[in-house]
Amino acid sequence: MKVIYQIYPLSFKDTNNDGIGDIGGVIEKLPYLKELGVDYIWLTPIYESPMIDNGYDISDYYNISPIFGTNDEFLKLLTEAKKMDMNIIMDLVLNHTSSEHKWFKEAKKSKDNPFRNYYIWSEKPSDITSTFSGNAWTKDELTNEYYFHLFAKEQPDLNWQNEKVRHEMYKMINYYIDSGVKGFRLDVLDLIGKDVKTNKLSNGPYLLEYLEELYETCFKGKDIYTVAEMGIPLEVSKIITEKGYLSSIFQFDHIILDEVKGKGKWALRDLELLELKEVFNNYQSNPSIIPLFWSNHDQPRALGRYLNLDYRYYGQTMLFTLLYLQRGHIYIYQGEEFGMSGLGYQPINVYKDVESINFFNYSKESTEEKLKSLKVKSRDHSRTPMQWDDSLYAGFSNRKPWIIVNPNYQEVNCLKDLNSANSIYYFLKKFIELKKTIKTLSKGSFEMLLWENEDIFAYKRTLDETYIIIANFKDKCVCLDLKLQDYEIVLNNYDTLTSKLNPYQAIVLKIIK
Ligand code: NOJ
Asked: How far is the CA of 57 from the centre of ligand 1 (A)?
């Protein structure tokens, strides 16, 4: 079991006062992360990039973007983290490059350019839509053909069926392994096996073949942790991890439960606890160790998204309890450790994210509806600067940051939590210690309890001992029939425990009888 902390470097800590976070900021905060109990630090992409999709559009895989620092500073980060027994996970974007990458610039020059076949071209566009709205084919005026891009038009998809492309990617990954990188998060990896002609995109016909090749060429026999972003069925995830091609795979079924089924991420509905139980129970049937996460740089912070913000401390600690004592790795997204939440309603000119802006421009819904969807689902809610303290710009920078600071920074900030014994930060820290030291909580079996209860999420972990984890998912008191004399209370986010659970009350009990 590992504790993985995700850093969105643009918004983590700015040390050269240009309003953008940098590698120096990550180095400065290493002791803070160590103190929390972090083992691995996942950095979203820091390579050279025109930043159309905040780094997921790479123009040079071998160089660190000057906005974050230099290659030498990156190596320093690896060394400094290692000294504290922590490792860095780099984000690998293998499905597409930036349109500013030298391969694409060459490929566009002529139909017989040696790099043409690095990308996917067609004389006629099909009707596949891009994840970021609009058609997935864009016309190249010079050669009069269309190139394929599943994300922004500045992110052309690589042609993985071209062996040269695959080998360029493996060479680059091995370069980072040789530099001392010990982990990789692989972006939209399910897409590399696609066949555009037959419209088989995710989980395509070549996926397993390429994953095996990737594993054999880069990861086999090495001490490397991999976690892939893949929107694939659980059964396929099981096959991939059982074969050992990847260490773990993110599952997304739980974070789409507040979407109207089949209508995409912007059509909203309330999350049903019974559905959440079913989804987590399915995940637990996966033999590999599951990445347990609530939010990331794409997924707005869970607190305000699912819960009533009036109960920030209870809500966030309940969310940790509900999720993190399940079988799996603990993933913390920057700022969750002290209860950061989303921005709430904002006018369209506040948004920076390409996906949000494209949605607003392309969608036929009314402006009011679109702003409502953005209020809940825009990726910018999790991308605002880290709220380190209550000083101007929340202690993130001395200069106006690249993105709006959440106006709640005087109320919600890291320093405030560090200075208060009863804070979300200290609850999480205690929690991590528990999962690291009690074998039953990291390695024990998982059994869902109270299946039919619409308010309470409860489960049991068993190995040498038995622990019961109970979380009231509602902002109201809920009755629970417990024979308290049979249990030792290991953790409780309230001071008392009765047969009536308080709003968002969460407890960990050990069976003693
Ligand atoms: C998934 C990444 O998490 C997201 O931020 C990015 O926009 C897309 N992949 C495209 O790379």
From this structure: 9
